[in-house]
Known about the structure:
Layout: H1 2-10, H2 16-27, H3 32-45, H4 50-60, H5 73-86, H6 95-108, E1 114-115, E2 118-122, H7 125-137, H8 144-158, H9 178-191, H10 199-214, H11 220-243, H12 247-262, H13 282-292, H14 295-305, H15 309-313, H16 318-340, H17 349-352, H18 361-369, H19 376-388, H20 397-409, H21 417-427, H22 450-461, H23 478-481, H24 484-505, H25 509-512
Antiparallel strand pairs: 1-2
Amino acid sequence: MRSAREATLLAPHDPSPWVVTGAAARGVQYFPEQFRPLWEELVARAPHHYAGHWQALQYWCAEWYARENRLDLDWAHQGCIRVHRRLRPGTLPLPAELAEMAVYFRAEVRPGDWVLGEYERPLNPNRLDILMQSVACFPAFWTQDGADRAIGHVRRGTVRPAQSSVSDVTEVTPTLPADLRELISDLSGIVSDYPYVDPESTLAVLAYDAAEALGRDATPESRRERTGYTILLHATCWYVSARIFSKSLFASYIRALDGLRAQLDRASCTCPAGAHPTRLDSEYQVEAGVSMLTEAGRAAFAEDYGLDKEESAVFDCEGFLADLADEALVRLREAHQELFGGIDVSHLDAQFVRDDGRLDLVAMQEAIRRSWEDNTGPVALWSARRWLTGQVRDEERIGVFLCLWMGIAQTYAGLPPSYARDLAAALATIDLDVSCEHPQHPWSTADSTVQSRYRAVVHLYAPEDHPDTPVPAELSARELWECPVQYAQLAREALEDLEGWRTMRGGDDEDWED
């Protein structure tokens, strides 16, 4: 808590330290009156901060400080009002509606009431708390569609208000089979970028199922599947494009989408202008796509969103589906080139090569430091290619290698194979089986911050312009900078990072190699 407080003084406009205080508040057992000022400071800076809302949700749940096993609804209601006032009109449900929904379901559902569709056991009272806390504590992420979805989940599979036994159920609400409810849950976690199943295998199965559906005869079932799988592949294609470095998964997606697109005739569309759904956030698409696979799912989806027959029929429009398939295919093919193709960084020559042919190491470091411009990967790749082609003077070697190394170490989300191949090749030129008698090397004195590393390198190449350096004078000799052991230590660390990228991003060995 003390460190987080100190960080708030160093970066007064940054909400991140206040998110950390929210987490620390549970550890140090803050009382509610101590927690509220932390929350106020957070929402004053970032009223819709996801992690901040999540930490608040954790604090107020029954496990910690909610009163009588319930969320403090006054806090949730007031927080929703504040957030609503900060965002543009129409992006959120009314705060009163959220609070009213929470109060209504708390009043109507009692421990011992039955879970709709799961008549084997009564409702766990904690389950309702979790649902209502999620609705109330994440107001900034609930568009009107989101609020409708929350109500729909309550109707369809979570709880049925005031029903205490099977004999009490007089009206059957359309419901999805358990396997499709699970599919919605799995895919929603993936497109929300918080997967709790293995994304690569889950999406590979989805693409396989879509391709299998192509071979079925033109029946009502196959047309339902065509609609559902086209929507689902579109909903998940961005995740494939940005998060999974697997050529085989790309190929499966493109093959399935090409097959679906071949069955769609855009010219057959007779929908009036503006009839096609436009508010297609990824989670909505997941629910729509899975629901479209079966008649029961379609009925449940139409009831949840209040769709009439004509509005529901639009999802089957071949023009609408063709647009989705085309958009997904364009994104996947562009991403395939970005992830696995050749990356051209020759434009950096003009920035980093002086008129006399020498390299401007200070300019390279300046570019790496501007990480918000996504310079880190391209500078590392450019450095690797100069290294591999021998276009480096002796006095530039350690500077170029450190630019390469920093590009790897400071790319926390990992670079794709289109970058990693040349980076690995450059690292492979370093002899790892070396030794020396030096007790310490210069780079070991630069700590892990970007600023410290930057200062060390720019001082090495422009000491008069950049006199400040973390490297002490006794370690500044060029012999120490060029020691093979220091190169070996840096190469080992970078190779470990590259291996971590493979583990994190998936794919097979051939996906990461030529």
